[in-house]
Design brief:
6 helices, 8-stranded mixed β-sheet, about 25% helix, alpha+beta
Length: about 210
């Protein structure tokens, strides 16, 4: 079933197209593949980038609602011919949405792969990106409310998260996880290990 890709703010798209049309912006980017392209490129698949606020482990343990998220930008995949070669990020400033930077690397291919996975699930979703800075982790967030405002909202119980590769140790990349399941895994990763209690000097020997 096709994904319901939300429309990006028009100024965000315009800023990316302007950067793609600027030889200086492309030349200064740390993206050799983008600089070497001989033909035209397009900006496609705009995805809102949300950041997961610090995980509240006690709330999760008591069955409380998931942590809040906040929108930090919009990401566009840059296509050349039949493949995606880079991505472009935008950020919100006091003057509105502006181009931030181009980049390439494993997250570009991982995002494309996760989007294809999502299309094969047979359920309509609104795709977003959800970043977990505490774990240096990025996921494709499949939001069930396809008509929702892409700039707001919490991960709902019926939503899915697909960790992008490379994922943190102990978390399977490119495996769809229900939100509640993956949040529990992440909270365990962030729970400090309890140091063993040293035996009392006054305790009798066994």
């Amino acid at each position: 079933m096709p994904l319901h890709v939300p429309p990006a703010p028009a100024p965000a798209l315009r800023s990316v197209l302007a950067a793609l049309g600027s030889p200086t912006a492309v030349h200064e980017a740390h993206t050799p593949s983008l600089r070497a392209l001989p033909g035209p490129v397009t900006a496609e698949l705009p995805l809102p980038v949300h950041v997961l606020d610090r995980l509240n482990i006690s709330d999760l343990a008591s069955g409380g609602r998931p942590p809040r998220t906040r929108l930090t930008g919009w990401r566009f995949l840059i296509r050349s011919g039949d493949r995606y070669v880079a991505a472009a990020d935008t950020r919100l400033t006091p003057d509105g949405w502006l181009f931030s930077h181009f980049f390439e690397g494993p997250y570009v291919a991982a995002t494309e792969r996760a989007l294809r996975q999502a299309e094969s699930l047979g359920t309509a979703y609104q795709p977003r990106l959800l970043s977990v800075p505490e774990l240096y982790m990025l996921t494709l967030w499949l939001h069930g409310a396809v008509g929702a405002d892409a700039s707001a909202g919490l991960p709902a119980a019926e939503d899915l998260l697909i960790p992008l590769a490379p994922a943190p140790p102990g978390i399977a990349a490119h495996r769809p996880h229900p939100v509640s399941e993956l949040l529990r895994v992440m909270s365990r990763r962030l729970t400090p290990a309890t140091a063993p209690t040293p035996p009392s000097l006054a305790a009798p020997a066994a």
